[in-house]
Amino acid sequence: MFNYLFSMFSNDMGIDLGTASVLVYLKGQGIVLREPSVVAMDKNTKKVLAIGIEAKRMLGRTPANIVAVRPLRNGVIADFDTTEKMIRHFIKKVHTRKTLLHPRVVIGIPSGITEVERRAVRESAEQAGAREVHLIDEPLAAAIGAGMPIQEPEGNLIVDIGGGTTEVAVLSLGGMVVAKSLGVAGDEMDEAIVNYFRRKYNLIIGENTAEEVKMSIGSVYPLEEEMFMDVKGRDQITGLPRTIKIGSEEMRIALLEPTKQIIEIIKNTLEETPPELAADLVDYGIILSGGGSLVRGLDKLLAQETELPVNRADDPLTCVARGTGIYMEELDNIKHSSENKF
After folding, report:
1. Is 84 within 8 Å of 128 (Cβ atoms)?
2. Domain-located, residue 147
3. Hey, which residues does 228 pair with through a beta bridge?
4. Is the CA virtual torsion 17, 18, 20, 25 positive or negative?
C-alpha cells in the first residue's frame, strides 16, 4: 500500500537510454525530453561543460582542451562516470520540485547485453538519484510502445533499429520467444557514409554531416525520383574545403553493408522462430521502430527479402520510451492489485 501511495506522489519516469539519444517519458505527461546522448567536457579537469543538444553541436568543432563524447556504445555503457552525470542531468531536468521523493525509473536496455552491463546501467541510474530502478529489454519496450498485441498467444515480430543496436524479437504471451541483438544500426550507417565519401571522393566529413546526408537523401531501395544534395567537407589531399553533389543512388551503395547485416539478423531470427508463430507472421508481418527504420525504402527492401508484410510503427522514434512509460504504469497496477489481495 505504501509503495502505491509513494508512486502517486513521485515523478516516475521511463528512459530510453540510447546510444544516439535519450528520451524520457514522465508519468502522466508522456515524452517530455528528447536529447542527444553526448557530453562535452574539459579534457584536463574532467568538468562537464554541456550535455545533450548543446554538446552535440560541439562534435567535431571543439578546441584541443574540450572533448565531446558519447558515453554509450552499441547500447551499453562505455564510460560509467560520464553516463551517470548524463542521467543525473536529464533526471534533474524533468523532475519537478513538487515532491521530495526521488523518482522510480524504468530503463530500456538491449536484449543482448551481459549481466555485468545490466548492473552498470542499474547502478548508474541509482547513483544519479533514482529511488528504484527497473530494466526492460528494448524490443519488448518497443513492441509495447508500438501498441502491438504482445499479450495474445500469437507471433509478433518487432525490429527496433536505434543508434547503436538493432533489436529483433518474436513476442508472444507477453514475452520474447526469440530475441537477437546486433551492434549495427544508425551510427554504423553514418560511419558507412563517412567511409564512402573518403574512399570515393577523398572528402572527409563529420558524423553530424553524415547523419544529415542519411536523413536528407539516404535510401536502401530505388526511389521513384532520385534525390540530390550538396555536401561540404575537407579534401583529403589538398586539405582545403570542398563541396560535391551527391545522389540517393550513391547512398544505397554506401549503406549496402550495414543494411545487409540487419537483413541477415532478421532472417536468422525467423529461422529460429517456432513454426506456429512463424505462421502468424505471414498475416501480422514485421513492425519497424527506432530512428534507423526511417531510412527511405527500408520497409520495401525488408518486405522483398523476407516475403512478409512490413509496416513502420506510429512515431517510431519514441516507441521504446513510450514502452518504458507504459510498463511503469502497469507495474503500479500489478503491485496495487497484488497488495489488495492481502
Report:
1. yes
2. no
3. 247
4. negative
Q: What is the pTM of this model?
A: 0.89
239: containing domain: 186-256
Residue 148 lies in a domain: no
Cα angle for residues 124, 126, 131 (degrees, 5° grid): 155
203 forms beta bridges with: 235
Grade residue 289 by pLDDT with cuts at 50, 70 and 90: very high
Helix (H) or strand (E) holding 176: strand 175-182
Domain count, the chain: 3
Query: pLDDT class for 103, splitting at 50, 70, 90?
Result: confident
342 burial type by CB count under 10 A (0-12 exposed, 13-18 middle, 19+ buried): exposed
- The DSSP 8-state label assigned to residue 296 in this structure reads B
Q: Determine if residue 73 is left, alpha or beta; phi over 0 gives left, psi from -120 to 50 gives alpha, anything else beta.
A: beta
Q: What 3-state DSSP class applies to 228?
A: strand
Three cell numbers, residue 297: 525504402
Classified as helix, coil or strand, 275 is helix
For residue range 25-76, list pLDDT tens digits in order: 988 889 999 999 999 998 888 889 999 999 888 877 778 788 888 898 887 8
